[in-house]
Amino acid sequence: MEKMMMIATSLNELRDARRLQEGTIGFVPTMGYLHEGHISLARRAREECDHVVASIFVNPTQFGANEDLSNYPRDLKHDLTLLEAAGVDLVWTPTPELMYPPGFATWVEVEGLTGPLEGAARPGHFRGVTTIVTKLFNAVQPHKAYFGQKDAQQAAVIRRMTRDLDFPIEIVVCPTLREADGLAMSSRNSYLSPEQRTAATILFRALTTAKSAYERGERNAGSLRKVMQEVVASEPLAQLQYVSVADYDSLEELETLTGKTLLSMAVFMGKTRLIDNFVLE
Ligand SMILES: Nc1ncnc2c1ncn2[C@@H]1O[C@H](COP(=O)(O)OP(=O)(O)OP(=O)(O)O)[C@@H](O)[C@H]1O
Ligand SMILES: [Mg+2]
User: Fold this and answer.
1) pLDDT in tens, 184-204
2) Ligand 1 mutation target, pool 31, 150, 276, most atoms within 8 A of CB
3) Most buried residue, 26, 59, 62, 144, by most Cβ within 10 Å?
4) Three-state DSSP class for 194?
């Protein structure tokens, strides 16, 4: 018989449940409202580890003052059903009060890598991410932790933090899962009106057009940025925030493509902010 999935809300419950687990632990941190992208991370962890722990926590400190914290989508019951079906053993669902008690004053910050792109567009975002991921890592004590390539800069920042702070954890970055029309799966896609949902393929189309130009031999980063800007500009419902053609490791903007390159962008569809990226090897 399959073991029941355990749910821990307090640190003591989590630690008690973790003490019963032997062997390797795979960890999948999420903000809930789960989709196939999240589940692909859980399945990968299931394949690679003896036990799979997931967390669901909408982390207030990674949201800016003008962002969507208060109306962030939630459906814990559905999330638990999906995680159980994916073979997750233990779900950690802490409260904001537990994670940030009165007087909380300790932050984890990665310099440099967090400056451009999402870091520039969302001041304070990565400080919130690295602080909460540190707390989750310390609570769960996994051997491997699974993140999605959709959030490319987040994955790079977490990798750097893990190395710099000597966390004994292997960071596994998993491919971006997409809807049939190319839109990267995201919990925030649920905000889109039907018209915006159709138009939201513009990110994938812009990245695909730039990739085709690259495959035809284009190596000028400015030209690739222009290609992506023009494709996004062709969609009246989309408002471009940034496009980037950057070195995959340093995230510094390039003039000429030589090595591994990250094409990325952030686009507003009305109030909904979407990101996507391709990696050119
Ligand atoms: N389409 C996807 N494919 C693979 N992994 C994904 C995808 N979307 C999110 N993830 C990963 O799931 C983990 C949890 O992300 P999160 O809960 O923020 O989901 P999300 O869909 O990105 O939500 P939001 O759009 O609100 O940020 C992160 O490691 C993220 O990179
Ligand atoms: Mg996200």
Assistant:
1) 999 999 999 999 999 999 999
2) 150
3) 26
4) helix
